[in-house]
């Protein structure tokens, strides 16, 4: 019995010239619009090419299939989240628990601001979530949070920190997605984020 192979999701080539960079940017912008309008189920390379005003062949120069386009959109979103994690959690001048609180507030606001696009990308996740490239991108964010927990809980067993990392990140992602599925006011977002931050704080302090 052979195992199912993950689809190829790496870009065929990277743009080397300004014109090529502009073309890829136009393709990704068109892909964002198609995904927002049509959803993952009706997302096709042909629709992206039509929206971008280029030939399907031009799209295939850089993306071998629609999974590669969707993964690029998801990868860009993951990288934004990773940068958020790094910028907030590695700011050593701020006490660790205050950094955690700031992260929760920033993440929940971001989830609500980008709810439509992130929901569509979540629907498309089965196309690429098991690919090595996807696991590599997700691991980067996990590594940043693991380093933060080592700073916060230096005496805790490694297994305890690993469990805490998985629990906090999974809860933040899952609950953030659920909460952002309904339009929220700024006051509701702030109150919800604060409650979640306090919940994480109580849990992590109890591990110290």
Automatic annotation (TrEMBL):
Domain (HTH tetR-type): residue spans on this chain: 21-81
Superkingdom as given in the UniProt entry: Bacteria
GO MF entries: DNA-binding transcription factor activity; transcription cis-regulatory region binding
Record's keyword terms, sorted: DNA-binding
Name of a matching Pfam family: TetR_C_18
UniProt DNA-binding residue ranges: 44-63
Protein name, per record: TetR family transcriptional regulator
Top-level taxonomy: Bacteria, Pseudomonadati, Pseudomonadota, Gammaproteobacteria, Pseudomonadales
